[in-house]
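Narrative summary of target 7.
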Amino acid sequence: MNSRLRFQRRLAGIGSLAMETTRSNFDFLEGLDTDLSSLGRLAESYFQDDPSTSLIKLRQFGERLTKRHASLMGIEIQEIDTQADLLRKLKYERMAPDRVLDVLHHVRKLGNAAVHEGRGDHREALACLKMAVQLGVWHVRAATAQRDFTTGPFLPPKVPDASGAELQGELDRLRTERNEALSAAQKAEEEKQRAILSAETAEDRHKREVEERRTWEALAQDADRQLQELSEQASLWSTAERSAFAQAAEEAAGAVVLDEQSTRALVDQQLRDRGWEADTSRIRFSKGVRPAKGRNLAIAEWPTKSGPADYALFVGQRCVGIVEAKRYQKNISAAIDQAERYSKGLEWEENQEAWVGEYFVPFVFATNGRPYLKQVETESGIWFRDVRLTNNLRRPLMGWFTPDELASLLEVEKEKAQAALETRRFDFGFQLRPYQKEAIQAVEKTLGTEKREMLVAMATGTGKTKLAIAMLYRGGREISDQLLSFSD
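Modeled conformation, tokenized:
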């Protein structure tokens, strides 16, 4: 029996736990890693009274899961390695799917904010709880033979005493969704457990929860030994076995299916990372948030004639972008059409004049929070269109524009820039050969058609470098945002 099969058999049986009625979303991880299951339970137990601590526990959950995956991939973990270091190694070596790494980074960042700044609210904690469950399912599918493993519907935590209408609505939705998915027997068992818990006195409940936390924390003390044992098991794998594990991890990424609320949390973080003030729960039109000088706001649920836009991007008091955010697994290329309708229907005093036709906002975006992958281009990344010219095409971006980048893009008038290029002289202080001039003119003409990728094929010694320098001199800012590819 090979080492990988022995490892999988040792973990056998955890799938059956998913069919049982449990009091935690993380019970299914008990047979795989007691530290993961205990950290998940602790995060749930702190949710109601202390969402900041819940986020800290979820950050630790993500760190533990990252170390497990890195150990299985044969990465030597140094004492000085932070979780960010390990995530970078996994990405650089292509040892984990981008979708998973993005979610792990998000949980890490919110956990760091909770640790260092005391930040964290119930909405963020709930989104991260759901993400952590999805990450756990992914890891089970990757690390065991149970490729179709599932936990069933998410079990919502207790409603906080001071919860707002939005959080209450989300928890009610999750509870209804779960109730519809359970069998009659499972519903009866859950009702029985609820009756037992409701009969507890406040003092008994407090004692039980304190004892449970002590038990889980005691289990976590053995975490380093477990991780060392895991690393030793994985070290016996052959190259083919490790390659099979990497392939299983890639295929298992489909287990990370985020709902709309969790997707919004990811998009919020992505926008914040690029310099926008974004927080769907706080920075939204219905909360009275409005554009202000000197601020770069991504205001959620901005009203338009066609309905509320998911985000309106304001640089100062001017709306420069509309964002349509879809669920994580949705096709988003076509969602640009919806963003365009919102651009046409925006009513705001600083956007009184249309850019072209009926568009009152120059840039439109669509996203589902997923990292860009060429293989599934229309279902990933951030799709973008500059609506100021009718022949501008929608296209995917690798990441969000910063506020300064959008403001700079706003200053570029493409038709004038194209006309300026056509009249500009080839005077650089060095001579170009006729075929080099013809190549430059061909590229510049193609840029005017909105084609963004071109291949200039030139033989060795024919002056590719000089041609590239000449193009930069001629184009300057007018073509600085275009993608030019040169190859032998």
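The two ends are 50 Å apart (CA to CA).
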